[in-house]
Amino acid sequence: MKTRIFVCFAVIHVCSFGNAIFVKEALLRHILDKLATLKNAVLEQQPYEHQNDSERESSREKTEIFLPEAHIPSRGRRDILNFKRLLTPVQKIGFTAVRHSNSAVHGNEIIVFGTSITNEGSAYNPTSGIFTAPVNGMYVFFYDLECMKINGDTYVKLMKNAANTGIESYCHGLGDIDNSSTLGVLYLEAGDMVSIRLSNSDSKVFGYKTIFSGFLI
Fold this sequence. Notes:
Blueprint: H1 2-16, H2 20-45, H3 53-62, H4 76-87, E1 94-98, E2 103-105, E3 115-120, E4 124-125, E5 130-132, E6 137-147, E7 154-160, E8 163-171, E9 178-188, E10 193-198, E11 204-206, E12 211-216
Antiparallel strand pairs: 1-3, 1-12, 2-11, 4-5, 5-10, 6-9, 6-12, 7-8, 7-10
Helix pairs in contact: 1-2
């Protein structure tokens, strides 16, 4: 109710002077104040009891929200830039990795993508083929398999902490090279591990065009 009263008062006051710019500024200032209050509430709830002073300061810096100083009047383009910075995620996490050669994967083993094209946040391990979530959040994963023509029926699945997520794909690879692509979204907590595993009990050969990607939304 207080918010509605504030907005209505701002509109009436500004329109009485016939200056629409002040209306936008009043509304934007109100939104920024609300977001600042929300930020402070989140910081107060973070579990800092097991961190030392330097770790606490680092955690606050990572979650810091940029706000224009109260005594500086907001104007046009600067408002837009500030608001974009306010909504931009602080931590960037994402990777794309490929297989560097045509090679076999043994039955029921993790498919390792040994060449990282991108590995922002260093959450993907190109040696083990495992992505470890550094923070809680929603993650998108995509993989495209190049199955060699000697494979026969080939099944793979996206794994979370060694359990099947239900995100699976298939390619026949019989008589010709075959490709199969799959995309899925998972909620992960910090420390959860994601990988792609061959479901067949016998070995299968995957081409160097096989790719695995993931990123935090």
